[in-house]
Amino acid sequence: MKDRMTSGLAPAPVGARPASIEEGEEGRPPPSPVTANTDPVAFPSNLRPFLAPTHRLPRFPVSPEAKSFRRRFFAEASLADWSDWRWQVRNRIRDAVGLTRLFSLSALEHRAVEAHCGSLPVGITPYYASLMSLTDPDEPLRRTHIPVMAEYLEAAGEATDPLSEDADTVVPGLVHRYPDRVLFLTTPFCSTYCRYCTRSRMVGAAGEYAFGTSQWERAIAYIESHPEIRDVLLSGGDPLALATDKLDWLLKRLRAIPHVEFLRIGTKVPVVLPMRITRELTRMLKRHHPLWMSLHFTHPRELTPEVTEACGRLADAGIPLGSQTVLLKGINDDVATLGQLFRGLLVRRVRPYYLYQCDPIKGSAHFRTSVEKGLEIIQGLRGHTSGYAIPSFVIDAPGGGGKIPLLPDPVVGRDGQDLLLRNYTGAVFRYPDPDGTFGGDKNARGRALPWASA
Ligand code: SF4
Whose CA is nearest to atom 6 of ligand 1? Predict the structure, then answer.
C-alpha cells in the first residue's frame, strides 16, 4: 500500500492492443456485455453498498486507487474501457516488457520471467495489477502472480500433478474421483495465473490440455451415461473467463441431464476481473439454478469496491457463494490477515468454505507453510469470531486421497463419566457423557489430567 502509486516509474502510454483474446475463446471475442460502463459511480465506504439492491448501482464502480492507476499507466483507456472485462483481458500483463513498464522488478523476478517457458505463463489483469505494490517484491498479491527463481526448484515430495487428477481422468477434461460428483475442466484459460496453481501443468497451455467443445461433448456423454453423478463442479482454468454464450450452452446441456441435481463453478474471476460479472452474465447464470459458486480469495487487499459489487451481483442472482483460500507462507499465514479476509467475505455474502494447505506442486516450497500453521490459525479464529467466518482447513491428499479436514483437537480426555474439553480460551470444561468412551484413549496414552478431579 505504501508505495503503490509512488514508485519512480514515469507514466507510460497504453501499449498496443493485441488483436484478439488469445486463449479459451477459440479465436472469437466474447459477445458484448449488455451494460455499457460509461459513468462508474463513486462507491461509499460504509456498509450500505453491501446490502443495497444492485439496481440502485447500475454501473460498475471504479475505486479511486484504480482510477489513479489507469490514469498513470493506461492513460489512453477511458473509464468505460477499464470497466470492460474484454479490455482488461486484452491488456493483461504477459511478459517482462509489460511488467517492467509497471513494476520495479527485483533481479529474481526479472530472471524468473525471462526464464519462463511452458504452461502457467505470466498473466495479470490491469485491474489486479492496480492492487499490487509497484516496488516491493514481498507485497502479498505481487508474490502470488510474479514468478521468482524459487519456482524452478523442485523439493522432495513435489509433483506436476500432486493430486493425481490425470489418473482419475475418465475422458479428457473430466475427473471422476468421488462416487457422486465430477470435476469438469472447461478451459485452460485464466485471466490471471497464480504461481501456486495446482493445475500449473495445464493452465495457460495448449497441446495435450487444449480444450474445445468436442471434448466437452465427450465429457457430457460420460456424465449422461453415469446416473450416479449428481453434482458437477466446473473449473479449469476459469469457467467465467469463457464467453457468456458458450458457458450458457454448457450449463444448459448439463442441466438437461436428469440425474444431475446440482452445478458448481469454481472461479477467481470475481476477484481478479470483477467487471466480468455483468448483468448479462448474472441473468444467464440465474437460468441454471441450483448453481453454487466457489470464489478463490487470497488476501484482504482483494476486498475492493469492485469485488464487493461483483459478489453482490452474484448473490443477488441467488447464487450461494463460498470461498476457497490457499494458505501461503508470508502472504496470508497469520490470524490477523485471514481473520480480516474471512470477516470481510461474510459481509459481502461469501461464506468462507475451505482453507487449503498448499498442494506440493513442483516449485511451491517457497509458498508452503507447515501444517501446524494452518491449525494454529483455525485455533486463533475459533471462538474469537463468528463460526460462519471460519472455513474448514483441509489437505487435498497427494496421490488422489481427496480432501481431508483437519481440526485443532479440543478433547483433553475423560474423567469417569465426563468428557473433558478445552474451549477457545484454553479453559477445560466437563460434559456428562455416561454412555460414552470417547476421549478415553487419551487417558490410556498416559496423558496427565491434573484437572480430572477438579
Ligand atoms: S485462477 Fe485457479 S486455475 Fe487459474 S491459475 Fe489461479 S489457481 Fe490456477
Answer: 194
Q: Is the Cα dihedral 316, 325, 303, 240 positive or negative?
A: negative
Domain that holds residue 438: 411-444
299 with 428, same domain: the answer is no
pTM of the model: 0.85
CA–CA distance, 89 with 275 (Å, rounded to integer):
11
Q: Does any domain span residue 184?
A: yes
178, 222, 230, 351: the active-site residue: 178
* Surface-to-core class of residue 214, CB atoms within 10 Å of its CB (0-12 exposed, 13-18 middle, 19+ buried): exposed
Residue 294 makes CB contacts below 8 A (sequence gap 6+) with 264, 265, 266, 267, 321, 322, 323, 324, 353, 354
Residue 201 CB less than 6 A away from ligand 1: no
- 207 falls in which pLDDT band (50, 70, 90)? low
pLDDT in tens, 287-335: 999 999 999 999 999 999 999 999 999 999 999 999 999 999 999 999 9
Q: Which of 106-120, 370-384, 432-446 has the highest mean pLDDT?
A: 370-384
Do β-strands 392-397 and 231-235 pair in parallel, antiparallel, or remain unpaired?
A: unpaired
Residue of the CA atom closest to atom 8 of ligand 1: 197
CA distances from 313 to 194, 243, 245, 316, 388 (A): 25, 18, 19, 5, 21
> Cα 369 vs. chain centroid, distance in angstroms?
18
Q: Does 50 score more than 70 pLDDT?
A: no
User: Grid coordinates in use for 409?
Assistant: 483437537
What amino acid occupies position 144? T
Indicate if 322 and 389 belong to the same structural domain.
yes
